[in-house]
Design brief:
The chain is α+β, with helices and mostly antiparallel strands and 491 residues long. Among the domains are: 14-185, no CATH class; 189-346, no CATH class. It has helices at residues 44-49, 54-58, 60-66, 134-149, 188-197, 200-214, 224-246, 296-310, 312-315, 319-348, 358-371, 376-385, 397-411, 417-427, 435-448, 452-461, 469-472, and strands at 14-15, 26-28, 38-42, 78-80, 83-86, 89-92, 98-105, 111-117, 132-133, 156-168, 172-182, 248-249, 271-272. The structure holds adenosine monophosphate and magnesium ion. Belongs to the SELO family. InterPro entries: SelO.
């Protein structure tokens, strides 16, 4: 009897609408095959939501796609061209080690970019090898998943495969490919590229494409490009406020790393803040603190101004009018950001209604936290549960006074204490991916091939607002190192 082989369809349903844009926007190119791909981690819930079959993805053919050794039907792999201000300096960039396979059209009808990161050299690789190392790709997987679970818009990670080839960084490392999933990979830098080197028609094509992908609700009668600018500003104001509220530091907020969709993208030297201090920087290359925690809203505004500049010719035929429209839109950012932040902070303190003095109350707490080096996440968690560990801050007179003011403030709203507590519980995460925990997971995985540490970490990070007993251990600070934590770009 011949063996009956049951073929399970993987569920790829790809189209590449980006490939229909002007040819100068990208370079068509297949991934460079790798020697012996092996699946390291697969994001089951994400795969399922994309309409993919997890069993089929784990088969040889399934993994071959995730490694770039096979191209699924409908994919048209391409490297996107873009430019960007890196630490303030304008440069030509582009996908130097990534390829967009296309958009997966999901069972819900959404279009989601599928990109292989670490898939080989492209025409934009400059001196790079086009590859990625296992450690940084797993780091992106962990942090992006944590961000998603914290309810922060983000690009996500479908899978990491090792390539069976090594990459040379400071040392020899395992090569890996991450499958990145995003609403799109349109960046401020994409507009900068077309604005600098393309025609106005090309710029219009890019803007129309962005509107269609992310803001299809645009009204036919309005200035559609002003609408685009305003909506991008709104989404970024919301995103940056969410970062600030959980203490996330992106680390490399170059304009090429800022999306138009409002998703967090490019997890290089990012990390979460422990002790509250607006000057916190983790990235080893951010010597002047350009991308410090407290500077992120300001940098976002700066990046958005660069975006506005690129679309001036679309905003109005009269340049003076165009500049005026752009400036007015940009000047809204600060207020939009601030109202998102303030609303989030009220939630973190269990406050439902609005009083003029709320900001003073919040700032009072933050400045005490800074003075006493209090841990950002754990302080809010302690306030949520009224369980004050013996940190210096909680023993001070100034804290006692502040606490009285806060309790009085809670007393001036209709909602009972229990509602405040519930609001705080859903606004203050039990844990963040602590730097030492992430390092520990990566070390076990990369050095010892033991993925269980990472799996446990991903598990506790999957419900950050559950406040379960298992999470308590993961919220502790590192006992070991007093040295400042340093992160590096995963190139
Ligand atoms: P990033 O710091 O990841 O935002 O990358 C900045 C630029 O460098 C982008 O154009 C990347 O595609 C490119 N790049 C980063 N790493 C590599 C690499 N290993 N090989 C080629 N290009 C790279
Ligand atoms: Mg980048």
């Amino acid at each position: 009897m011949p063996e009956i082989k049951k073929i399970i369809e993987t569920g790829w349903n790809l189209d590449n609408s980006y490939a229909r844009l002007p040819k100068s926007f990208f370079t068509s190119l297949n991934p460079t095959p790798v020697r012996s791909p092996k699946l390291i981690i697969l994001n089951y819930p994400l795969a399922t939501s994309l309409g993919l079959n997890v069993q089929a993805l784990q088969s040889n053919d399934g993994v071959a796609v995730l490694a770039g050794n096979q191209i699924p039907e409908g994919a048209l792999p391409l490297a996107q061209a873009y430019a960007g201000h890196q630490f303030g300096h304008f440069t030509m960039l582009g996908d130097g080690r990534a390829l967009l396979l296309g958009e997966q059209v999901t069972p819900k009808g959404e279009r989601i970019d599928i990109q292989l990161k670490g898939s080989g050299k492209t025409q934009y690789s400059r001196g790079g090898d086009g590859r990625a190392a296992l450690g940084p790709m797993l780091r992106e997987y962990i942090i992006s998943e944590a961000m998603h679970r914290l309810d922060i818009p983000t690009a996500r990670s479908l899978a990491v495969v090792t390539t069976g080839e090594s990459v040379i960084r400071e040392t020899e490392q395992f090569g890996a490919i991450l499958t990145r999933v995003a609403a799109s990979h349109l960046r401020v830098g994409t507009f900068q590229y077309v604005s600098k080197w393309g025609t106005v028609e090309e710029l219009r094509a890019l803007a129309d494409y962005t509107l269609q992908r992310h803001f299809p609700e645009v009204d036919a009668d309005e200035n559609r490009y002003l609408f685009l600018l305003q909506e991008v500003i709104k989404r970024q104001a919301m995103l940056i406020a969410k970062w600030q509220l959980v203490g996330f530091i992106h680390g490399v907020m170059n304009t090429d790393n800022m999306t138009l969709s409002g998703e967090t993208i490019d997890y290089g030297p990012c990390a979460f803040m422990d002790a509250y201090d607006p000057a916190t920087v983790f990235s080893s290359i951010d010597i002047h603190g350009r991308y410090a925690y407290g500077n992120q809203p300001h940098i976002a505004e700066w990046n958005l101004a660069r975006f506005a500049e690129t679309i001036l010719p679309l905003l109005h035929d009269n340049q003076v009018q165009a500049v005026k429209l752009a400036q007015d839109a940009i000047s809204d950012f600060t207020e939009l950001y601030h109202s998102n932040w303030l609303a989030g902070m009220r939630g973190k303190l269990g406050i439902f209604n609005e009083e003029l003095q709320d900001e003073t109350l919040i700032e009072g707490l933050l400045s005490m936290m800074q003075n006493y080096g209090a841990d950002y996440t754990n302080t809010f968690r302690a306030l949520t549960f009224d369980k004050w560990s013996d940190t210096v801050l909680f023993g001070t007179r100034s804290f006692a006074q502040w606490h009285e003011l806060w309790q009085a403030r809670l007393g001036r709203q209709q909602e009972p204490k229990i509602s405040s507590h519930q609001l705080m519980q859903s606004s203050n995460p039990a844990l963040i991916p602590r730097n030492h925990r992430v390092e520990e997971a990566l070390e076990a995985a990369v050095k010892h091939g033991d993925y269980s540490v990472m799996e446990r970490l991903l598990d506790v990070l999957s419900c950050p607002y559950a406040h379960s007993p298992e999470q308590a251990d993961y919220s502790k600070l590192s006992a070991k190192s007093k040295r400042p934590y340093r992160t590096f770009c995963g190139t």
